[in-house]
Amino acid sequence: MDTDLLKCNRMTCRRALTDKAVVVSSHIFCVDCANELFNAARLCPACETTLTEPDDVVVCSLHPTNDYKTSVLSGLSPSNVLEICSRAISFWQYQIHQENSFQHAVVRNINDKNAQIQKQLDNVIREANGEINILNSKLAELETDLELERRKVRDMHEASRERDKEYQKLKVRPLITRMQLRTVLIFCRRSTIRLNARPYLAVLP
């Protein structure tokens, strides 16, 4: 497995461990966090387990040399070697389990936030749709009012045209009356002239 799978167990750090690390009980830390967190009380920063033994805190290299690999377990009985390997594998499995649990918690937290955001988005969309419906209703009312006003304007325009026609008729009527009166006067004048001329016509030989 790749050593990058192991990360500093400090929640605010989570740095990938690639060179050296400080191993404590079932937890592992980067050197910087270990120097900051460990104090005279000798407690594990992750689980607060009391660290009383000299080998409870160990600085280890994550990339040991071949010479170190050859000599570190040399001289130990097979049972001790197997016990060391078993504990090392158990430590690794615990770290992988913790990392998986952490990632699941992160995913769950993200999903919860997404669900909350989706809920808020749904509320915003619902409110926006409500506002749109209200605006559409107001727009329909305004369009109805506008059509009524247009109809009134058309009616007023038509009434104005009718009044204009009547006015034009009234303007023409006095002119016709004057023309008729003038015709009558001319006719009467001509008739008078003819009547006055008849006695003279009667005495002519």
From TrEMBL:
What are the entry keywords? Answer: Coiled coil
The answer to whether keyword Repressor applies is no
Single GO molecular function:
ubiquitin protein ligase activity
- Nucleotidyltransferase is among the record's keywords: no
> Which Gene Ontology CC terms are recorded?
synaptonemal complex
Query: Which InterPro entries would you find in this protein's record?
Result: CCNB1IP1, Znf_RING/FYVE/PHD
SUPFAM superfamilies noted in UniProt: RING/U-box (SSF57850)
Q: Which domain of life is it from?
A: Eukaryota
Coiled-coil intervals in this record? 107-159
Enumerate the Gene Ontology biological process terms: reciprocal meiotic recombination
Entry protein name = RING-type domain-containing protein
What organism, scientifically named, is this protein from? Athelia psychrophila
